[in-house]
Amino acid sequence: KKLGIALVGLGNYSEGQLAPALQETKRCKLTAIVTGTPEKAEKWKKKYSIPDKNIYNYKNFDSIKDNPDVDIVYVVLPNALHAEYVVRAAKAGKHVICEKPMAISVKECEQMIKACKDANKLLSIGYRLHFEPHNMTMAEFGTKKVYGNVKKVTALDSQEMEAGVWRLDKKLAGGGPLMDLGIYCVQGCLYTLGELPNAVTAKFGKKDDPEKFKSVEQSISFTLHFPSGAIAECNASYADKQNLLRADAQKGWFELSPAFGYDGLKGKTVRGPLDIVNLNQQAFQMDDFANCVLKNRKSRVPGEMGLRDVKILTAIYEAAESGKKVTLKGLS
Ligand code: NAD
């Protein structure tokens, strides 16, 4: 039997990536949708043969608890809404996948973890790159010290952003490109080094368009400091097109560029290009979670990892605002 997934929020990511990936998954399938827009419900109903009884809106969402066709709720809403819907999904007795960043505060992340624990349900974060072979090759090279100890990681992720969208509204996004893209830099550095940072420094970039970027940063540079002495230099921006994860190690370098996209990732090392296939990351990510549910095993990208990253993002903002080095203690 394939487990049933309900997608909550039918925006670009659900429409362009998750629903198509759910046509390729082996252990789960799209059985329900949650949307506030009747026209979208109609379109999705036809396209994916979803019965009327499996179509919810944000008001009647809680009645999903009575629907045996749904095993997993996947929250794909603006960041500030993640906490509410993850908690409601857990209370409805469903396992949950929540998109990144997990939430807009550490407190919310803790509430989400508790709600899933209290309901005895699994929680994972939409960290698709843990199921992507180029990125996992970076992790392998780094942690197995294939090129010796990694001394420095460079992670850059930027994307141009149109004005007026929720990603530029701090209330809905929790912050700017750091929350949206910088999280990939943080993740990339941590899985490449296999180590947790103990301090951060950071600096906001200048705003070319203060009106467009009135509530969030346009760009941010930050440095993560690691106990081994390694450092990671990162930049996240809404006004650029950079996409790189690179490690400089004692005996050479290895990198991905682009590193964080859905497809077309390319790797090379000091020895030459890497020959790695691009797979449907989201299909692997969701099948892995379905397997976790079926075997009652914790996800390798659990809520605790989402919480850890929100703690790091919060410290990066604190460092940028204060201009001081911020110490990170007790990460796990
Ligand atoms: P989007 O703007 O395309 O879609 C957001 C959806 O939420 C829309 O359908 C919108 O109607 C709905 N919505 C419900 N309540 C809303 C409200 N109060 N305000 C605004 N929209 C509301 O966004 P998206 O790109 O699909 O991103 C959704 C989530 O997925 C975000 O958390 C984002 O970080 C994450 N995401 C992850 C990846 C990834 O690669 N893992 C990629 C893209 C987006």
Automatic annotation (TrEMBL):
Keywords: Oxidoreductase, Signal. Residues 4-127 form the Gfo/Idh/MocA-like oxidoreductase N-terminal domain. Residues 146-242 form the GFO/IDH/MocA-like oxidoreductase domain. The keyword Oxidoreductase applies. Belongs to the Gfo/Idh/MocA family. It comes from Dyadobacter subterraneus. It comes from the Bacteria. This is Gfo/Idh/MocA family oxidoreductase.
